[in-house]
């Protein structure tokens, strides 16, 4: 960013401050202070409107929250002034405050801290000291002290506080390196008093005391910290403090600069005779790496990251470099680690070690750290009599052995950080590669740590592996079967190799035949079962599952019964019958173990093979538990759909005739902030709802079929998802017929006839289902159902030019709706009759019916219906040649449709735009006609409707001068 005004100065490291071109800005509004703080804390990053609403009202926003928030932004800009106010940029979905790091104290502090870290790595202590003193000078008091948002404080203060601790830690370390141990004693003691459990401050205080000649005080400080840790946390001091205590006892404290305390320097030993040195055996150089995987392919980015960490080891000041390779079982972590380790072996001349920690071994317990340390010592042939029995002493010997060596250590299949920490060398010349099925964030500290997620092979990498194993000629000759093989393998290295091994074992079979044999096995999991525990996918997954806690295991089994491709947190909570907080913890655990993957904000997915394993486990639960899982997820979808429709289209809710079952106390229904949020939920969840609806009968919950079809129909009707609606209705009808439920069948037949009529407007589809629905409602003695069937038949007959039948059904529907006091139904019928009377050249009846319909909708506050009638009136005037009045009505409909766009009126909006374009075409305004059609085509393409292709062709013809 170019210099946008050096006068900008904003800060949150103390009371909120802002200055515009040297003039301090006074912000009196509490909401504006919260808004400014939120933008400053995320400077140069987009902050969404929802995030700002969340902090402005601490998760309890008013109904008009977004509008009020936009007003606050406008006023904040005015308050801040021309320079700083202009930095708040409006972007899609939110706002961004643009600034240079030096213009915001928090960013400036972080910049100075990173510069100091670099200087320390280069042992430029003076530069580091200057940067850190400038960083500390930026702190003016307690951050966010005058910002009222509790949500913002809870979210941001921990990270801000950690930054101050990091700066102070490095400041004290640099001062000790510069020999200023006496000068920082008082500050260090104050830091320990404020943070009595912060071991790094305690260690720095011990170092300063000892270097100042106060050895006993340094040891007392150690004991005081040890007691506090034991009393409050039930733990002992960490490795650093324990080693420092031993160094103080031995008068061998080393300052951070690397200089040993002169008073404590040990006397030089006598040199050993040359003959004795020559007779010593050569040091053992262990080379334990397993044989690398044959045909290793791909992983270029991961290998490059490993190379970069190894190349940067010289800049790491202390401790070994540690990298974790994390991913699900069978994904190729070990193969990657071993392949790279062989490539890098020459860089570690003192040895390459390999230990299988068996962290997820389903047949036994993980390898205990004490045994792992013993194996590592054995690798260097340390005599048994020298190996202590006490664990801490054994670890100390292990670190001593590796202290001056350059060794590569591969720790395979680690369960958690506690299994790995004792095995980490202290020497800076060593590098550790850890593989695990769960993330190990506790191992990654500072510049010496790196985590690499090992995911699926790319399609190109999978193809390359297939070519290497099968031979390029055989794989190329497979044609389309080659792509099918890549898809069947799931792009997991283990399953790909199993598939390829089967192909190689049957060279006379074509690739298509091999694939056919695999696909004949319905379970993804059974397809790749080898019978060998070492290569069994099922065995690998069992190892992961057994390491889950009770909540994670419960949710994992429940996910085996979920029929969607993606699941959101609320649905997962309902599925397992858990509160949202517990479901979130369970999903986090499954994510750490790579049994689910994060597919987007709050959305998770499972690989097909993992899903089959979860399905197997779920079917080991009692049948009543499986039924409860299915009942909960169906109830969640049904009740949430009702809540969404109630917000987006209240009139549709009043027409629901199927009665939902009683609410379940263990299912939390979605709460939507507004109608757009309700519509988005439908868009996101409709495929999962359809999948559960389609299987409701076989799952033992047939009634949910027609219940969900009716609730989903209210959304799908207006959004244009008619094929999906018809599919849902057919599934519901089959379930109702199987149950001999006449009301369920009537409802499903009505939904099917309605959707089919929309799909095939003017054709012969839909009449039998609508007639069957009318017959069933008459059989049930249900006048409201009969009215709805007559209304749908009004539309059906009108679209096909059957004037007498259309008028007859409309008259019957009006009579029934009026008798029931259903004004929404009456208005919709009048709109349908008016529309078709236009086509019957009965302009008086058309306009009279439509104007009555319009008044009813306006009195009811039904904006969807009102938009529909404005469009119908425009069509009536258009057909009658009254172009000015038609244009007025079209624009009225378009304006209202635009406001309803997010509620799901996309298809109606497109049709109105098309007809408005037709009107402008007839009046000779070709430019306006093309503009309306382009807007309509964009909507139709979004909905995936074929009408878009025809409309685009008309636009091209118009541009070419062909009307």
Automatic annotation (TrEMBL):
Segments of skewed composition (Basic and acidic residues): 271-280
Positions of the OmpR/PhoB-type domain: 22-97
Pfam families per record: BTAD (PF03704), TPR_12 (PF13424), Trans_reg_C (PF00486)
Example GO BP: regulation of DNA-templated transcription
Residue ranges occupied by any Bacterial transcriptional activator domain in the UniProt entry: 104-249
Location of the region described as Disordered in the Swiss-Prot/TrEMBL record: 258-283
Superkingdom to which the source organism belongs: Bacteria
Keywords: DNA-binding, Transcription, Transcription regulation, Two-component regulatory system
Name of the protein this chain belongs to: SARP family transcriptional regulator
Organism encoding this protein: Streptomyces chattanoogensis
Organism taxonomic ancestry: Bacteria, Bacillati, Actinomycetota, Actinomycetes, Kitasatosporales
């Amino acid at each position: 960013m170019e210099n946008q005004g050096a006068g900008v100065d904003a800060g949150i490291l103390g009371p909120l401050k802002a200055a515009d071109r040297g003039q301090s800005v006074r912000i009196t509004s509490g909401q504006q202070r919260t808004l400014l703080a939120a933008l400053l804390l995320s400077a140069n990053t987009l902050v969404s409107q929802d995030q700002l609403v969340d902090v402005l009202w601490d998760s309890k926003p008013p109904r008009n929250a977004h509008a009020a928030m936009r007003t606050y932004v406008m006023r904040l800009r005015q308050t801040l002034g021309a320079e700083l106010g202009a930095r708040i940029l409006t972007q899609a979905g939110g706002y961004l405050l643009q600034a240079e790091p030096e213009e915001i104290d928090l960013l400036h502090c972080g910049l100075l801290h990173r510069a100091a870290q670099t200087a320390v790595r280069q042992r430029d202590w003076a530069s580091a000291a200057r940067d850190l003193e400038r960083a500390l000078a930026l702190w003016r008091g307690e951050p966010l002290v005058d910002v009222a948002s509790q949500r913002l404080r809870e979210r941001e203060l921990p990270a801000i506080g950690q930054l101050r601790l990091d700066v102070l830690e490095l400041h004290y370390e640099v001062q000790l390196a510069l020999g200023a141990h006496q000068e920082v004693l008082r500050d260090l003691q104050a830091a320990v008093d404020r943070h009595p459990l912060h071991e790094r401050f305690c260690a720095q205080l011990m170092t300063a005391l000892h270097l100042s000649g106060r050895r006993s005080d340094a040891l007392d400080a150690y004991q005081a910290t040890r007691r506090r840790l034991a009393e409050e946390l039930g733990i002992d001091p960490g490795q650093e403090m324990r080693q420092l205590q031993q160094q103080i006892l031995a008068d061998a404290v080393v300052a951070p600069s690397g200089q040993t305390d002169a008073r404590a320097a040990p006397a030089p030993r006598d040199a050993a005779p040359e003959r004795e040195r020559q007779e010593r055996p050569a040091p053992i150089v262990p080379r334990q790496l397993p044989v690398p995987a044959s045909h290793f392919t791909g992983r270029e980015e991961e290998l490059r990251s490993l190379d970069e960490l190894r190349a940067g080891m010289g800049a790491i000041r202390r401790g070994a470099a540690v990298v974790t390779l994390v991913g699900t079982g069978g994904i190729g972590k070990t193969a990657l680690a071993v392949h790279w380790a062989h490539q890098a072996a020459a860089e570690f001349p003192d040895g390459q070690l390999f230990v299988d920690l068996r962290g997820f071994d389903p047949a036994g317990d993980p390898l205990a750290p004490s045994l792992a340390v013993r194996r590592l010592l054995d690798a260097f042939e340390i005599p048994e009599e020298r190996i202590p029995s006490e664990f801490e002493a054994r670890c100390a010997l292990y670190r001593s052995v590796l202290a001056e060596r350059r060794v590569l250590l591969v720790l395979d299949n680690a369960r958690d950080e506690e299994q790995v920490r004792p095995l980490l060398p202290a020497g800076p010349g060593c590098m550790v590669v850890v593989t695990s099925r769960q993330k190990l964030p506790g191992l990654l500290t500072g510049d010496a740590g790196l985590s690499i997620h090992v995911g699926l092979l790319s399609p190109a990498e999978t193809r390359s592996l297939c070519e290497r194993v099968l031979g390029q000629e055989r794989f190329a000759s497979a044609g389309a079967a080659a792509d099918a093989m890549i898809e069947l393998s799931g792009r997991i290295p283990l399953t790909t190799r199993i598939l390829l091994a089967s192909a190689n074992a049957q060279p006379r079979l074509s690739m298509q035949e091999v694939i056919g044999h695999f696909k004949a096995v319905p379970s993804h999991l059974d397809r790749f079962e080898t019978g060998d525990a070492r290569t069994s996918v099922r065995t690998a997954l069992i190892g992961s599952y057994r390491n889950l806690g009770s909540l994670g295991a419960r949710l994992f089994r429940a996910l085996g019964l979920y029929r969607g491709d993606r699941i959101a947190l609320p649905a997962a909570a309902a599925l397992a019958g858990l509160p949202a907080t517990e479901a979130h913890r369970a999903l986090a655990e499954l994510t750490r173990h790579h049994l689910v993957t994060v597919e987007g904000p709050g959305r998770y997915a499972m690989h097909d093979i993992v899903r089959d394993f979860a399905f197997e486990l779920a079917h080991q639960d009692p049948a009543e538990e499986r039924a409860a899982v299915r009942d909960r997820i169906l109830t969640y979808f049904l009740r949430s759909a009702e809540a969404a429709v109630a917000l987006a289209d209240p009139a549709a809710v009043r027409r629901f005739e199927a009665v939902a079952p009683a609410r379940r106390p263990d299912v939390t229904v979605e709460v939507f902030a507004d109608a757009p949020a309700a519509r988005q939920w439908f868009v996101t969840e409709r495929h999962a709802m359809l999948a559960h609806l389609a299987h409701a009968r076989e799952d033992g919950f047939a009634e949910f079929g027609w219940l969900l079809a009716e609730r989903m129909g209210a959304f799908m009707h207006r959004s244009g998802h008619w094929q999906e609606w018809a599919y849902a209705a057919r599934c519901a009808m089959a379930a109702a017929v199987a149950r001999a439920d006449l009301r369920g069948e009537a409802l499903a037949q009505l939904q099917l006839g309605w959707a089919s009529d929309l799909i095939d407007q003017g054709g012969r589809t839909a009449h039998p289902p609508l007639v069957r629905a009318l017959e069933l409602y008459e059989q049930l003695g249900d006048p409201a159902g009969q009215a709805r069937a007559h209304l749908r038949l009004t539309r059906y007959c009108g679209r096909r030019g059957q004037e007498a039948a259309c008028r007859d059904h409309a008259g019957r529907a009006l009579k029934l709706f009026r008798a029931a006091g259903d004004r929404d139904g009456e208005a919709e019928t009048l709109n349908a009759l008016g529309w078709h009377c236009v086509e019957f050249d009965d302009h008086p009846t058309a306009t009279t019916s439509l104007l009555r319909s319009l008044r009813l909708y306006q009195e009811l506050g039904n904006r969807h219906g009102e938009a529909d009638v404005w469009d119908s009136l425009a069509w009536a005037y258009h057909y009658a040649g009254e172009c000015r009045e038609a244009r007025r009505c079209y624009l009225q409909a378009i304006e209202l449709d635009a406001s309803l766009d997010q509620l799901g009126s996309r298809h109606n909006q497109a049709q109105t735009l098309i007809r408005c374009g037709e009107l402008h075409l007839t009046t000779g305004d070709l430019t306006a006609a093309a503009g309306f059609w382009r807007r309509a085509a964009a909507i139709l393409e979004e909905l995936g409707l074929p009408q878009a292709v025809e409309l685009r062709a008309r636009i091209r013809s118009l541009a070419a001068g062909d009307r």
